[in-house]
Amino acid sequence: MTNHDVIVVGAGVTGLTTAYRLASAGHDVLVLEARDRVGGRLLTERHAQHDEADSSADFEVGGQWVSPDQTALLGLVDELGLETFPRYRSGDSLYVGRAGTPMRFTGDLPVSETTAAAIAQLTKTLDGLAGEMDPSRPWEHPDATHLDSVSFRAWLEERCDDVEACDNVAMYVGPAMLTKPAHAFSALQAVLMAASAGSFTNLVDADFILDRRVHGGLASVPRALADRLGDRVRLEADVSLVEWSDEGAVVHVGDQTFKARHVVLAVPPTVVRRIRFSPELPAEHRMAREHQSFGLVVKVQAAYASPFWREQGLSGTGFGPYELVHEVYDNTPDGDERGFLVGFVSDINADEVGRASAQERRERILASLATYFGEQAREPLVYVESDWQHQELTGGAYGTSFDLGGLTRYGAVLREPLGALDFGSSDVAGLGFQHVDGAIRVGDEIAGRLIEGVHP
Ligand code: FAD
Question: InterPro entries under this entry (predicted)?
C-alpha cells in the first residue's frame, strides 16, 4: 500500500487543478482516474468522412468555449502556455420563431415590440436578482426560499403573459444551460446560473459567453496539467471503496489499496454515488446527492467543404426556441478552410431523438440545421454527435443541478468537507458553475485549504 499526503479521485479539470496546485506546493499527491484518459468532460476526437484520413478533423465533443469573465480559466490557459482564438461571428444571425422561417438579425432578436419589451423586463428582473446573489452561497439570497419553491417556467409565467418572451428566456437557462426543461428546476437555480456568469445579460449574450476557444481544444488544459504531474496520475484506476475517518483514508481500486491523509473526490455529485464509503456517508450527504441530476444535451457538429453560410453574409449563429436544434454556431477551427457548425438538441428533444435510430436522428438534426441555413446543411462531409449520457463515469451533459427546493435544502452540504474527505467538481462551483472555469476555482479552493492546513 503506497502512502500519500493527498489522493485525488478523478482527473477532470477539478482534480488535476487540485493535484497540480498541491504538487507545486511540495505535497505528495496521487491522482486516480477511472478512464484510460484524463480530461473527464473535455475531450477532442478525430473524425473523418467514411474513415478517409485526408478528410479528418478534430472535434471537441465536450466543453470548448471560454468567456471573458472566466478569469480562472484564462489565467490557467496563460500559465500553461496555451493560446485562444475568437469564435467566428461576422454577419447576420438567424432567429426561427413559431412560424418556422428563419429571420436575419443583428443585435436584438427580431420579435414583436411587445415580446421584445417583455424580454427586456424579464432580463432586468433577473439581472437584479443575480446582482443580489453570491453565487457560492445562493441559498443566502434574500428571497431564496420562495425562489427555490417555484419552477423557473412558473416564475416566468407569473410575471409575463407573452408566451414567446417566456419561451426565449426559458430557453436561455433551460435548454441552453442547465439542459433541463424550465419546469424541472427552480427559479433560484436559474438565478444562480445567471449570477455564476456575472449577470443574466452576460449569460444570454452569445458573443460574451461563447467568446473564444483554445488552440488544440479546451482538452489541452487537462492534458497539459497531467503532463506536468507525470506519473502522479494513474489511469484505469476506478475507485470503488473509500474507508475514511478524521485522520485519513484508504482508497480501493480493485484489489489495490492507497493510503492518504486527505482524499479529494473530484467527480460530479451524482457519480460520487457509484463509490462505496466505509463508514457510510452521513444521511444528509447521501440525500444531497440523491437530489442532484445531470441535464441532457446532444452536441452535434457537422463539417462542410466550405463555410457556405458566410457567403450569404451569415455568421452561423442561430436560435430557435421551437426548433429541434435550439442554438447553432459557426465552429470552424482557426485557419481551417472548411466550414464547421455546432448545434445543440436539449432536454425533452434530446430524450426524443435518443429513442430514434442513429440514421433517423441524423436526418432530423440535419433537417433542423437546414431550416436555418438551407438545403446545403443536409450534406456534411463529417457528422459527429457527442454522447455523454451513456457513459457511466459522467451520465449526461453539461452538468448536474438540483431538483425543486434542493438548492436551499442541500446546496451547502455538497461542498462540505467530511473528516479526511473533500468533494468538488464544476457542478458545485459558484462563479463558473457547470463550466471549466468553475472546475478550476473549486480545485484552487480545495488545494488552497489543504495547503494552508485549514481543514475541519
Ligand atoms: P469531470 O470532467 O466530470 O471529471 C471527473 C473525472 O472523474 C472524470 O475523468 C471521471 O472519469 C473521473 N471519475 C469518476 N468516478 C471515478 C472513480 N470512481 N474513480 C476514478 N475516477 C473517477 N464548459 C465550458 O467551460 N465551456 C463549454 O463550452 C462547455 N461545453 C460543454 C459541452 C459538453 C457536451 C459537456 C459535456 C460539457 C461542457 N462544459 C463546458 C462543461 C465542462 O466540460 C465541465 O464543467 C468540466 O469539464 C467538469 O470538470 P470536472 O473535473 O469538475 O468533472
Answer: Amino_oxidase, FAD/NAD-bd_sf, Flavin_amine_oxidase, Flavin_MAO
Nearest CA to ligand 1 atom 47: 41
- Going from the Cα of 432 to the center of ligand 1, the distance in angstroms, rounded, reads 13
Ligand 1: which atom is nearest the Cα of residue 434?
A: 45
Tell which atom from ligand 1 comes closest to the C-alpha of 13. 51
pLDDT digits (tens, 9 = 90+) for 356-415: 999 999 999 999 999 999 999 999 999 999 999 999 999 999 999 999 999 999 999 999
User: Is 2-41+218-292+403-453 assigned to CATH 3.50.50.60?
Assistant: yes
Residues with CB under 6 A from ligand 1: 9-15, 32-35, 40-42, 62-65, 238-239, 266-268, 271, 274-275, 299, 386, 388, 393-394, 397-399, 425-426, 434-437, 439
- 41: its cell numbers: 468532460
Q: Ligand 1 centroid vs 231 CA: distance in angstroms? A: 21
Query: Looking at the domain covering 44-68+84-90+209-214+294-390, what would its CATH class be?
Result: alpha beta
Tell me the DSSP string of 39-103. Answer: -TT--EEEE-GGG-GGG-EEEE-S--EE-TT-HHHHHHHHHTT--EEEPP--SEEEEE-TT--EE
Rounded distance from Cα 390 to ligand 1 centre (Å): 14
Determine how β-strand 84-86 pairs with β-strand 212-214.
antiparallel
Which residue carries 419589451 as its cell?
117
- Ligand 1 atom closest to residue 32's alpha carbon, by position in its atom list: 20
Cα of 136 from ligand 1 centre, angstroms: 19
Residue spans of the domains in the chain: they are 2-41+218-292+403-453, 44-68+84-90+209-214+294-390, 111-204
Q: Is 151 left (phi over 0), alpha (psi -120 to 50) or beta?
A: beta
DSSP 376: G
Percent of all residues in the chain with a pLDDT value above 90, rounded to a whole number: 96
Instruction: List the one residue out of 265, 275, 260, 271 whose CA is nearest residue 442.
Output: 265
Q: What is the pLDDT of residues 313-367, one digit of tens each?
A: 999 999 999 999 999 999 999 999 999 999 999 999 999 999 999 999 999 999 9
Q: What class has domain 111-204? A: mainly alpha
205 half-sphere exposure, CB direction, 13 A CA radius: 15
Q: Do domains 44-68+84-90+209-214+294-390 and 111-204 have the same CATH topology?
A: no
- AA identity, residue 270: T
Q: How distant, in Å, are the alpha carbons of 95, 103, 164, 321, 452 from that of 99?
A: 11, 10, 12, 11, 59
Question: pTM of the prediction?
Answer: 0.97
